Give the backbone structure.
Amino acid sequence: MTLASEHGFAHWGALGRILQGWAGAQKGEAMTGIASIRDGLAASEATGARANTPLHLALLAEALAFAGKIEEGLAALDDALAKAAVSGVRGWDAEINRLCGELTARLPYPNPAKAEESFRSALAIAREQGTRGYELRAATSLARLWREQGRRGEARELLAPVYGSFTEGFDTRDLKEAKALLDELALPT
């Protein structure tokens, strides 16, 4: 961000603010992070850059969720999907749909059927696009929902082959979470 500022790279400075805000929210500084992301989004829009707006709105939604602002997060995700549809930039659709499911499940009156629909959409999009990381995340989220519904066998049948398709990266958070869930699903109830 310093280099971007020194050399007048407004787009990169805006991106830096967005990512810095998201990282801050991940570390427990949700309100400060939300402000940074919104500032970065405005600065990015001012440069005319729009290609990454769906991703940036998804990052904002995550930060809002950390702050307990679930409805605002869902609104940001709806905006992200709408902007992706208009722009044709669909690379983050799987993750945006997965986040819709996660936030829907966290509403004061959750709608498990709607959350499952979002997870299934995320899974289908990830498979269509060949984005295995997003496929793993979607499968883990759906398997977690099914576990909570007592559908442990279905959850394991869904997640095991996706997890098993990986040959490296087992120290990453996504694969660790999937493995822990699989281990839990293997235990007798």
User: Anything to note?
Assistant: The CA atoms of residues 105 and 112 lie 6 Å apart. The chain has ten helices and no strands. The longest helix spans residues 30-47. The radius of gyration is 18 Å.
